[in-house]
Amino acid sequence: MTGIGGVEMGAQAARSRALAVLRVRSRALAVALLPAAAAVILLVGGSTGHLAGGGWDVLRWVVSVLALCVLLAAAGVALVVARSRPAVTPTVTVAEESAPDLYRMVRDLADRLDVPAPSAIALTPDCDSWLEDRTHPAHGPPPAEKHHDDLAGPGGPAHRRSATAPVLVIGSPFLW
Known about the structure:
By secondary structure, the chain is of the alpha+beta class. Helix content is about 55%, strand content about 10%.
């Protein structure tokens, strides 16, 4: 079991990793903008006449081309990062036909808690369980909507299962 100290240490470790990522991102942005800033200084200095002459003109062109190349490379990296897929924990979806009792138990628990039933159940080798939103494009198409008439009896709870409901991911050690 993790005590209060372990939770605080975990939060501090996560915070320090997040700050490290932010430092790397800030430094990468500064390196990408530095040639552009130098090109702006040289262009403004040339237009005001303070940095005029043969050597300054060549330097102005070289720095401007370098700044353009660096900004294009940074835009390419930003596009790759923006289009990247989030990390997905390996899971195996359990078909309802292969574990009808498990699905029935989960639906019954969801009804008792008055929450939507998950759209599917999956297993993972991790030692944790969670609800996972599979509507993100990284997960592929959402599971097909299924209807269960056994939940909607006379005066019974209404059907709460939909294709946009999260998937219940169960850590396989919890099944033992």
